Amino acid sequence: MPLTIYHNPRCSKSRQTLELIQQAGVDPSVVLYLENPPTAERILELAGLIGVPVIDIARRNEEAFRTADDLPDTDDDTALAAWIAKHPKVLERPIVVDDDRRVAVVGRPPDNVQVLLGQ
């Protein structure tokens, strides 16, 4: 089962989600998204796989979001995805993707990942 986790090792929820995946015997591909941000196209795809608008995978309480002077219309998924790609700290974490099954979840709470693990 190939899974990808968009991971921030400084985030406790992200660490807990990664641990749950590994405890299930899965060795996921780990993307340190602050160092290697996803493209705007991938952010749009992630939102689609989760089944939510892009705003729902943005950390709206993050200071970079709250104080942004270049924030686009949050109803414009394409523009917002491009903005998040430039400000990856605002991307919700962790996001876990099963590209084979074309589904993703946000690991908040970490147990959300169980749907991808079949548990």
What would your notes on this structure say?
By secondary structure, the protein is α+β, with helices and mostly antiparallel strands. Helices cover 34% and strands 13% of the residues. The protein has a four-stranded mixed beta sheet, with helices on both faces. A hairpin with a 4-residue loop joins strand 3 (95-98) and strand 4. It is globular. The model has no long low-confidence stretch (mean pLDDT 95).
Task: Name its key features.
119 residues; four-stranded mixed β-sheet; alpha+beta; 5 helices; Glutaredoxin
Largest sheet, in brief, is: 4 strands, mixed
What is the H-and-E element order? EHEHHHEEH
Q: Class by helix and strand content?
A: alpha+beta
Q: What value does the average pLDDT take? A: 95
Give the amount of beta strand, in percent.
5-15%
- Which of globular, elongated, flat, extended, rod-shaped describes the shape? globular
Query: Total domains, how many?
Result: 1
Q: Any idea what the CATH architecture is?
A: 3-Layer(aba) Sandwich
The gyration radius over C-alpha positions equals 14 Å
CA-CA gap between termini:
13 Å
Q: Percentage of helical residues?
A: 25-40%
Strand order of the largest sheet: 2-1-3-4
Question: What is the assigned CATH homologous superfamily?
Answer: Glutaredoxin
| Number of DSSP strand runs | 4
